[in-house]
């Protein structure tokens, strides 16, 4: 899949999901407030894991904004 | 260390209150309870009508003079009171407290209509000026009374504080204004008995709650019966006279604050309260003038 | 008509009161900016070992510092020491098979990195600016990332947009090398609450690197000549990630599923599939089990060795650019005390091998990497 198709797919996903999702009332969010229900419950552990695998593999990105080099060559 | 139930009783806001907290350490549970009780006491210091140094008393003392500026928490409470006033078409009105000056439920006498009308001049949220953060009570003698808000808010705040400190199972009971922190450790709900309005020693039904607020309003706490007609302390701010219709209402909502406002508004609507409760989307129970009891569980609650 | 009116009335009453109630401090469901009195601190220590050849020890500190009601600062510090040998190149062996030639020399390196994330909060959004830097014997970088995040739909949808820029300098121990490298990146993401028990996240990240992108420690065999690793001076990458998180009420657990598709202009396409199960245990213990599967295609200019030269002079025998699969298994045990403190232990095993790639061609090189890592962490809010 080339880059252009990836972007088209991403955009259609975004439009689809924001249209069909249920509008959850603030008081119904109970379970979502649990730490392990957040997208990245342990952000530092994710940073460590991505550093480790990125130094062994050839792909990266997607998990967060954080850029910057790490010299893992 | 096994999780055990620890109960802490304390007096605040003119009520006997109780914290029931499940925790695996008695000393830590005591510390958590102490923090929660301190929070309730702090709220009482700030909003009690009876304490001359409270923010509420300062607001009331400023009536007839220029207004006063209030802090963010008081701003939020006044905004909430205003929302209730608007959503109830003026029935829920925190300025109606002055009516207690003409209604003496121990006397067994009805007030004179002209006395009621005189006090009515001081009642009406629409008469005051609320432009955050400034509140102005234009007439001397006008008063705000957070009686229907602060105790319920305290129950919520108390429960949320305990929850944030690690309590997963527990209940806060502030004289009938209840916030369930979480079910018993085995997953079972807390079972709360609802008093029979005509026979306070009897429980007319029970409500099961795993989490959230429960508040009740009833006509039996302060009332008098004259010529077979019951006059209760629930006064319609628009007429100055007690409402007739429902004997008691209990409401379940995510927060005790909302449960309390809803049960009060339902009582103030009298017979129409039955239908109105249906439109709120909350679970409720009412007991009407004939003693009939009806409960409804809304789909949203679990 | 009446029904529509009734439904609208339901929404309106409760919604108005809830909105007003949530403004109250005793009730609000959690502010995002750090409370003026809270200083969250996270410390982790990592020990990583690879193939009995390479070892890394690292210390990480993340600290949150409140500044005022709408601003705070997140500081992240890292100190790492690495020692070990790594393979240099492959050569054809006597029987035509491929053999790995290791230098035997040991590389030791020390790395220090720091980032400062300044966050500014508005009514429904957050702007963050993060300058960062890292320094080691043979590499230096300075970077800045900016991100804007905002909510809509009663906070059921969160959008994120970010850009980043990095300026890097590459050198090499034992060599007279001083080369520049530059990176630019763009990030867009959306997180959507689907219902009371689940969330979906979609992220797209685009990056462009230019300058010296080769590995100065790697060599390659071209016919009979030994040449330096020489990669293109530009690389454009795209990564698209979708994550689904679901709470399993009967099990008191949550399931996280993530899939990432990666594509670049070096010919590499990669798939990552990750799944984690977070199990709540009694007394505030949490056990997380994680499984990650990865596979990638090789770069166009990769070969274990080259029998004939390439017209463009681009060569690399760095196995990381080969075609292979990898599997990672991880377990994390965490204990939380009260609401302020937790400790955790995380153990992961990783293996990377040509034949772990389950579809398409894969490398037949003998290269087989296994590693294990243990992380111990403490977090406490002062």
Topology:
The complex is a heterotrimer of chains A (73), B (302) and C (382).
Chain A: H1 3-20, H2 43-56
Chain B: E1 4-12, E2 15-23, H1 26-47, H2 55-61, E3 68-69, H3 72-87, H4 113-120, E4 129-131, E5 134-136, H5 150-164, E6 170-174, E7 177-182, E8 190-196, E9 199-209, E10 212-218, E11 223-226, E12 229-232, E13 246-253, H6 256-268, H7 272-280, E14 283-288, E15 293-296
Antiparallel strand pairs in B: 1-2, 2-6, 3-5, 4-5, 6-7, 7-10, 8-9, 10-13, 11-12, 13-14, 14-15
Helix pairs in contact in B: 1-5, 5-6, 6-7
Chain C: H1 2-22, E1 40-50, E2 54-68, E3 71-84, E4 87-92, E5 98-102, E6 107-121, E7 125-136, E8 139-152, E9 157-170, E10 179-195, E11 198-211, E12 219-222, E13 225-228, E14 234-248, E15 253-264, E16 269-281, E17 285-296, E18 324-337, E19 341-353, E20 368-381
Antiparallel strand pairs in C: 1-2, 1-20, 2-3, 3-6, 4-5, 6-7, 7-8, 8-9, 9-10, 10-11, 11-14, 12-13, 14-15, 15-16, 16-17, 17-18, 18-19, 19-20
Helix content estimate of chain A: 40-55%
Radius of gyration of chain A, taken over Cα atoms and rounded to an integer in Å: 17 Å
Termini separation of chain A comes to: 26 Å
- Strand content of chain C is over 45%
CATH topology of the largest domain in chain C: Porin
Number of domains of chain C: 2
What is the terminal separation of chain C in angstroms? 56 Å
Please tell me the total number of domains of chain A.
1
Assembly level: heterotrimer
Describe, in plain words, how this protein is organized in 3D.
The complex is a heterotrimer of chains A (73), B (302) and C (382). Chain A has 73 residues and is mainly α. Chain A has helices spanning 3-20, 43-56. Chain A contains two helices and no strands. Chain A is flat. Chain B is globular and about 65 Å long. The two termini of chain B are 31 Å apart. With 302 residues, chain B is α+β, with helices and mostly antiparallel strands. Chain B has a domain at 55-136: Orthogonal Bundle (T-fold). Chain C is 5% helix and 62% strand. In chain C, a hairpin with a 2-residue loop joins strand 10 and strand 11. The longest helix of chain C has 21 residues, at 2-22. At the A-C interface, helix 1 and helix 2 of A face helix 1, strand 1, strand 2, strand 6 and strand 7 of C.
